[in-house]
Amino acid sequence: RTSASSLIGNVPAMASPAGIVALLGLAASLFSETATAYYLPGSFPNEYRSNATLRVKVNSLTSTATELPYAYYTLPLCQPAEGVKNMAENLGEMLLGDRIENSPYVFQMHVEERGHIICTMPGLTAEQTEALALKIKEDYRVNMILDNMPVTTASLGAAYGDILTGFPLGFVQDEKVYINNHLMFNVLVHKVLPRPGENYTAGPGYMVVGFEVMTCSVASSRIVSGSPVECGEDKEEVVEGKQITYTFGVTWELSETQWVMRWDAYLKMEGSQVHWFSILNSFMVVCFLSGIIFVIMLKTVRRDLTQYEEIIQETPEDTREDSGWKLVSGDVFRAPRRASRLCMYCGSGVQIMGMVCATIIFAAFGFMSPASRGSLLTSMVVLYLLLGIGAGYSAVRLLGIMVGKTDGWKVLCWQVACFFPGTCFIIMTCINILLWHVGSSGAVPLSVYFSLIFLWFCISVPLTLIGGYMASCLAPVEYPVRTNQIPRQIPEQRFSAIGLIVGAGILPFGTVFIELYFIMSSIWLHHVYYVFGFLFMVFLFLVIICGEVAVVLTYVQLCSEDYRWWWRSFWSSGSVAIYCFIYAIGYLIFDLDHLSQGGLPSLAMYMGYMTIVVFAVYVSTGTVGFLSSFLFNYMIFSSVKMD
Question: pTM for the complete prediction?
């Protein structure tokens, strides 16, 4: 933890928008006494001596069958003597549905237990019995944390796919429901060798490098205080009115794994060859489209310009006739319909694209540690808020370019600031109403809800207005050609515009669909995803391909004497969202077919959050296509000599 005030002396004078964002980020940190920085895995080890106390935390109960998390103590389970205390650390954890709390599971370093009784719960009521049995039938898993390490039900040396975080709450056998009331923990520790000059009078230190558990169901009648608990044929059935005794054992195992490498077992990459195939697939698509762009730019456009120059020199002015894309030179920069709406979309797209790009870069360099739960989502929220200045600047600047004036820039900035966040809040509110009704911890708490609204209006909106004001003070951009007063008549087109737009999204989607599977599995099947280097390369290819697809279709459209390219360039690259939505539906049907067990809340949560993601993809990729087409048109028409 670093004092924020100690950093002030190192901040240089910055006048650029990036500098302003950096200063605002630093100023925001001054509202708290200290600022916690992101850290790489293996930066802040905790060293324990023999007999030192280690406390286990519990997280939300989770299930891939319903995707609805529930707080641990919503079920009749043993509670700590000092009372339940919320131990969530950041905004991202709350948004993800994590509810980290203390627990009655307490260990002593290198002190083994065989049958420690935690508590005996009184007879289950009918309501408690029904709730406990339902959670077991829905395959809910208990998630525990020791020294920031999640518990796993298999050896950490197992292959990928065998390591599952958490352990099953119970099981169903012969139509009877049993609870796993005895836990056998195995804690892997690494012995710390004394450093030169250090005095180890208290004995050597140990660092936790692994946390494993085996579960079994033991009839409470067989549990005797002070005696080891052995798993056998007699199991603890969940029956109304029955008392359940919860016990645990713990063993300690020395490991050669160093503390800085303890996350490697969790981050084993599934199918590295598949990731490389995804990169190769994207690279081939980029090369193909780049070749087309190369042919268009260096052969077709250059040849057209050469022929046009020859016509100008050899043909009298009153007999000249243009052909191809040069025919629309007087209309190509004619302001589109609903120009302010297009500017609003592009401003939001710049903000989303900047947030995603910055987040992936930070994660690729290791600043988003998996040990810091929720840090990825927290950083995305913070970056989105701070990048409001870029959204306002780009939206107002585009408005000035399209219509030649920036009147009404304040209204546009408010539209940009409220467009995408407002859409997200509406969808999240509908989802939360359902989750609150069923008591799921996936519902965002009201305190966090109002905190997000406060951050939205106190940080994002003012920054958007500042960016818009900066853009409104700039001189308008001069087009390379003049716009005619009377619009040119557009001839009948040979190809359907809708077909071209929808078909354009196939190539961008083809570059990401392989990586998209791993991302979806990470979100909905609780797999660990940490190959951000691959993700950054795929993201880079996606941006390039979206721009190239939009440029190719814009050139084809102009050659057909159709100058209505503004919105179509946005739609053509943004159409990748159509295929992402279809993929999300297919993933729900074929990979999450069991999600129907959770009923309407589960389906609504999945479809709601995937709708937000798909909408963000549409706005951001559409912005990339539009900006690429605008730069392409500005460049080629700058090379044409017009009267």
Answer: 0.85
